[in-house]
Amino acid sequence: MKSAVPVKLTAAQSTQLLATLETRVARHPARHSGVTWAQVKARLETNPARLKVLAAMEATGGEPDVTGRNAKSGAVTSTDCSPQSPAGRTSLCYDRAGLESRKEHQPKNTAIDLAAELGVEVLDEAGYRALQQLGEFDTKSSSWIKTPDDIRAKGGALFCDRRYGHVFTYHNGAQSYYSGRGFRARLVV
Question: What is the pLDDT of residues 83-108, one digit of tens each?
Fold first, then answer.
């Protein structure tokens, strides 16, 4: 399977990605109150490897946007803000054990493996609910979330969505997968 993370960004790709991110930051100020594009750009310029990860988030449909900044360290958090679960990260079992337990019709990857490949963290329930405070996401899709070990040990995995103006958390077998379920991630730069 071809990696979603580019080996290297060209200067033109970096410039285009920065322009896309700057436009998104300007278009959605409520997602990152008090955070300026200059702060974000400075963090990215000193962490070029993180720009590559953001490129992969963008390429898989995540539409990453700034969703927070640590006032003490200056670290900036970017989270997938696509209206629906990122299209390039759907039809995935939750994790490798779930995938291997399927006898037939195995998907090509898992949410946990792809997140590791991309270099991102799958949102947990608290992170997912915090994202939903910034807008309405997954109104027609759903997203796997980081599942607590005790639930995972029993074969389950958690996912969330937004319906009827509320955020719901559900469970499924970790081996299940659906075309409308992917995962949302965050990256700290």
Answer: 999 999 999 999 999 999 998 999 99
Specify the DSSP element, H or E, that contains 155.
none
Range list of H helices, the chain: 11-27, 37-46, 48-59, 96-101, 111-118, 125-132, 149-152
In the block, tokens 């946007």 appear at 65
3-state helix, strand, coil in the chain (%, to 5): 40, 20, 40
Beta bridge partners of 172: 157
How many of the other CB atoms lie within 10 Å of CB of 39? 16
Longest Cα–Cα distance in the chain: 51
Contact 159, 172 (CB under 8 A): yes
Whole-model pTM: value is: 0.93
Residue 6: pLDDT band (50, 70, 90) is: low
Separation CA 26–CA 153 (nearest Å)? 43
